[in-house]
Write a structure and sequence with these properties.
The chain is of the alpha/beta class. It has helices at about 30-35, 35-45, 80-90, 110-115, 175-190, 230-240, 260-265, 300-315, 330-335, 345-355, 385-400, 405-415, 450-455, 460-475, 475-480, and strands spanning about 10-15, 45-50, 55, 65-70, 95-100, 130, 150, 155-160, 195-200, 250-255, 275-280, 320, 360-365, 480-485, 495-500, 505-510, 515-520, 530, 545, 550-555. An 8-stranded parallel beta sheet has the order 11-10-9-5-2-1-13-12, with helices on one face. A 5-stranded antiparallel beta sheet has the order 14-15-16-20-18. A 3-stranded antiparallel beta sheet has the order 6-8-7, with no helix packed on it. The structure holds 1-deoxynojirimycin (NOJ).
Length: about 550
């Protein structure tokens, strides 16, 4: 397998609004990130992915961009950005920008022009259609509730928005749109950024006839209908030639609706498109069919089946990205682990072991390295995320699919805001995030779970992540070894091996509180522990008893 620096990297995702506020306005900012570069270096990560920092009216917290070459007022200035980039580079950290080009803000000058008249030069930058039988042009729903179409009185036509109505979809079939995007990307590369995370890039190419799709619980077809459209690979190959080949970049495509077959094209080792993709199948194992609003717990066998499919399916052909969390997902410890006081640390470490020992590039989402948990939201007013708020109104008030109590339970379990509360720096007021009023509530558990306490404790979740990241730097097998699942039918244990030439690792994770037992394959019985989430390691024999949430790695 070809060796590449981006395969050997660990990426840390920052959601700037919630990371560190340097000026007391209650909103995280670029100077806050610069201030904390030493913390990131200490953790050991070597790539930073920033959620969008561009000028934006913030309908969707920066995923609605009104100027791709300016910084959001709340986050600082372009000079602050340059200083942050320099500080990252001085600390050996590369910087990945969030590229949000499936759509812009409706306040972007292109859209302001586009909606003016049917013959405006920017009209064809977006996707406009006349009404069909007096209604929306098709049955697609927005990701954030309601239809994916907005009627615009000015020209008496609808425009497409797969996300909020303030996020109109760009028309990638227009070569001028592609050139604008490529020029903008080259501008950022020239500035010195090291790559891009590409927001819903799998959705950019729509079938020209925009066909209806099967409807879900709210009566609309999924926003994912256009996934992997007819020209998406062609457009990404063009991007590769016109932009990405100009520098030594790292690229990851957020590919909602991606299949294994499609991922082999997006992230193929022939390096014609992207380096890797984010797939979401393992985020759906606790969904109800297509509906994420449930508090159903996953069956570990489904999780293993999905992750193994991706590990084996891309082996030698493409490259995986590994993640439990991001700004769109609830906290993994509250979802797949156990956030009670007793099992907090050990289950956070178990989840980390399970993920970081797989093949692929791991992503750590801010606060995951502390085991930050879901948030005990009490009322709908405490939410800030338009996805959560719109879903509440649609499913509880308008359609009465769920009662208030049910929906609050689902929101506490699945809302994106669980991952968006302020980073817990220390035990001072507002968790040390801001001296002002935070834009979203602070998780009340910050006195127990915070970076300062964990930096002082050698057994903390933070130091365990640090160790996993360090191990990956030291051992090629963790990066390049092949993955093979053991015990596929076990309901409690996730076990697999990694193999590179003569070397071999055994990874064992007990996903539950119940004690159980695992048989150690013969070749590992004379091995040694590389890492274990309990201080007292048990002798390696034919069998090893697994304590609650125990996980370890044995080297042959
Ligand atoms: C995916 C992003 O991760 C999410 O936060 C955003 O709301 C949508 N794309 C729309 O840009």
């Amino acid at each position: 397998m070809e060796k590449r620096w981006w395969k050997e990297s660990v990426v840390y995702q920052i959601y700037p609004r919630s990371f560190k506020d340097s000026n007391g306005d209650g909103i995280g900012d670029l100077n806050g990130i610069t201030e904390k570069m030493g913390y990131l270096k200490e953790l050991g990560i070597n790539v930073l992915w920033l959620s969008p920092v561009y000028k934006s009216p913030n309908d969707d917290n920066g995923y609605d961009i009104s100027d791709y070459q300016a910084i959001m007022d709340e986050f600082g200035t372009m000079e602050d950005f340059d200083r942050m980039l320099a500080a990252a580079h001085e600390n050996g950290i590369k910087l990945v920008m969030d590229l949000v080009v499936n759509h812009t803000s409706d306040e972007h000058p292109w859209f302001v022009e586009s909606r003016k008249s049917v013959d405006n030069p920017y009209r064809d930058y977006y996707i406009w259609r006349p009404a069909k039988d007096g209604k929306e042009p098709n049955n697609w729903g927005s990701c954030f509730s309601g239809p994916a179409w907005q009627y615009d009185e000015q020209t008496e036509m609808y425009y497409l928005h797969l996300f909020s109505k303030k996020q109109p979809d760009l028309n990638w079939d227009n070569p001028k749109v592609r050139q604008e995007v490529f020029d903008m990307m080259n501008w950022w590369l020239k500035k010195g950024v090291d790559g891009f995370r590409m927001d819903v890039i799998s959705l950019i190419s729509k079938k020209p006839d925009l066909p209806d799709g099967p409807v879900g619980i709210n009566g609309y077809a999924s926003f994912n209908e256009p996934a992997n459209g007819p020209h998406v690979h062609e457009y990404l190959q063009e991007m590769r030639e016109k932009v990405l080949n100009n520098a030594d970049t790292i690229t990851v495509g957020e590919c909602s609706g991606v299949t294994l077959e499609e991922a082999k094209k997006y992230a193929s080792s022939d390096e014609k498109e992207l380096n890797m993709v984010f797939q979401f199948e393992h985020m759906d194992v606790d969904a109800d069919a297509n509906n994420k609003w449930t508090d159903k717990k996953m069956d570990l066998r489904d999780m293993k089946q999905v992750l193994t499919k991706w590990q084996k399916g891309l082996e030698e052909i493409a490259w995986n990205s590994l993640f439990w969390e991001n700004h769109d997902q609830p906290r993994s410890i509250s979802r797949y682990g156990n956030d009670s006081k007793e099992y907090h640390d050990v289950s956070a470490k178990m989840l980390a072991t399970c993920l970081h020992m797989m093949q692929g590039t791991p992503y750590v989402y801010q606060g995951e390295e502390l085991g930050m948990t879901n948030v005990p939201f009490e009322s709908i007013d405490q939410f800030r995320d338009l996805d959560s708020i719109n879903a509440y109104h649609e499913l509880v008030e308008d359609q009465k699919v769920f009662t208030h109590e049910e929906m609050m339970r689902y929101l506490r379990y699945k809302s994106r805001d669980n991952a968006r509360t302020p980073f817990q720096w220390d035990s001072s007021e507002n968790a040390g995030f801001t001296t002002g009023t935070p834009w979203i509530m602070v998780n009340p558990n910050y006195k127990q779970i915070n970076a300062q306490a964990q930096l002082e404790d050698p057994d903390s979740v933070f130091h365990y992540y640090q160790k996993l990241i360090q191990l990956r730097k030291e051992k090629d097998i963790i990066v390049y070894g092949t993955y093979d699942l053991l015990l596929p039918d076990s309901k409690e244990i996730y076990a697999y091996t990694r193999t590179l030439g003569e070397e071999k690792l055994l990874v064992v994770c007990n996903f539950y509180e119940n004690e159980t037992e695992v048989e150690i394959p013969e070749e590992f019985r004379n091995g040694r522990y590389l890492i274990c989430n309990y201080k007292e390691q048990q002798p390696i024999g034919e069998k090893v008893k697994l304590r609650a949430y125990e996980s370890f790695v044995i080297e042959k």
